[in-house]
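Quick one, tokens below. Sequence please?
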């Protein structure tokens, strides 16, 4: 690289270690979870064209690369400790690197999650983050804990990221203002870390929504050996999405992808505790359905009529 690999690391990614026993610069970083805590770890690979658009601002890309990993910690109720950043870059561009690092560190600092190492190489743009967090031993939220009779909840709103993507693809019409607003949801998701921590001991299961509600809920149901009925009209959505035709709203809320909200279950006896956790963390949560013993996923509208969940119902979006 023109800048030099080590110069690049030192200039953009090396900062003094804080909580870590050893940070960037040695062969390994050293992290020390507090006594009684388990290490929680997760990784995500972001490829240009597949996971982000070439038009994304570097600050937002830096944010998103870490955000999607913090979202996995949130789903487990884990608190962030640190992360590794592996980069393949076509060229060492100071302006791009400076902006990427700015977005990355802004989110990292907001969550007290420090960069402790990584790898850097020349190649087609790819960003790989491995995150480490800690959770009291045995108290991590899992996908497998949903039980018949539990309420089903989701945080925030669903579908804006997909709405922005469909607008970018030219398949839905959005005003400039709506596109900019929903594009922030797509490019700068806010990981629900504090909510995940607050739900420890309250939620019976949790997952973060990266692939769309129907798909991700399916993971919870399979792992838990249960089924569910969704209230399709209760799914929380922004004013931008609510202004779209019904089939667009259904697609974006049910099969949106890139929401990075928490989907979780809790026994009805926990309703007050769930709302208290939401209020304490400033993250709205909405009850969207019920876990049932009968396997499979069903959805009904506000009148109780079945809503089809097959994606073939959304042919509107086929190219
Ligand atoms: P090694 O040869 O052991 O793989 P490198 O020479 O690749 O180590 O990296 C030197 C140091 O810089 C290591 O501490 C590594 O963790 C760190 N590092 C490399 N790339 C990055 C990056 N993109 N962000 C943060 N730290 C990095
Ligand atoms: Mg290396």
């Amino acid at each position: 690289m023109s800048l030099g690999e080590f110069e690049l690391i030192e200039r953009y990614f090396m900062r003094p270690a804080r909580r870590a026993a050893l940070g960037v610069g040695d062969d390994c970083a050293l992290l020390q979870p507090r006594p009684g805590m388990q290490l929680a770890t997760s990784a995500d690979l972001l490829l240009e064209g597949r996971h982000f658009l070439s038009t994304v601002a570097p600050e937002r890309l830096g944010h998103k690369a870490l955000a999607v990993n913090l979202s996995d910690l949130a789903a487990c109720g884990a608190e962030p400790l640190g992360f590794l950043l592996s980069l393949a870059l076509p060229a060492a561009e100071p302006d791009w690197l400076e902006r990427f690092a700015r977005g990355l560190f802004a989110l990292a600092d907001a969550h007290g999650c420090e960069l402790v190492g990584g790898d850097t190489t020349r190649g087609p743009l790819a960003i790989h983050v491995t995150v480490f967090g800690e959770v009291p031993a045995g108290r991590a939220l899992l996908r497998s804990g949903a039980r018949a009779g539990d309420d089903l909840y989701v945080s925030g709103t669903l579908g804006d990221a997909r709405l922005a993507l469909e607008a970018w693809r030219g398949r839905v019409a959005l005003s400039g203002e709506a596109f900019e607003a929903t594009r922030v949801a797509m490019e700068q998701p806010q990981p629900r870390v504090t909510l995940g921590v607050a739900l420890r001991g309250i939620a019976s299961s949790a997952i973060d929504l990266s692939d769309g509600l129907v798909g991700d809920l399916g993971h919870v149901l399979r792992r838990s050996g249960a089924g569910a009925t969704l209230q399709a009209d209760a799914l929380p959505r922004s004013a931008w999405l609510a202004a779209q035709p019904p089939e667009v709203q259904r697609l974006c809320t049910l099969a949106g992808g890139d929401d990075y909200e928490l989907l979780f279950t809790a026994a009805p006896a926990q309703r007050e505790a769930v709302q208290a956790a939401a209020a304490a963390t400033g993250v709205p949560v909405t009850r969207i359905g019920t876990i049932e013993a009968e396997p499979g996923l069903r959805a009904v509208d506000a009148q109780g009529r079945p809503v089809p969940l097959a994606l073939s119902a959304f042919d509107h979006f086929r190219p």
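The CA atoms of residues 21 and 30 lie 5 Å apart. Residues 312-319 have pLDDT under 50 and may be disordered.
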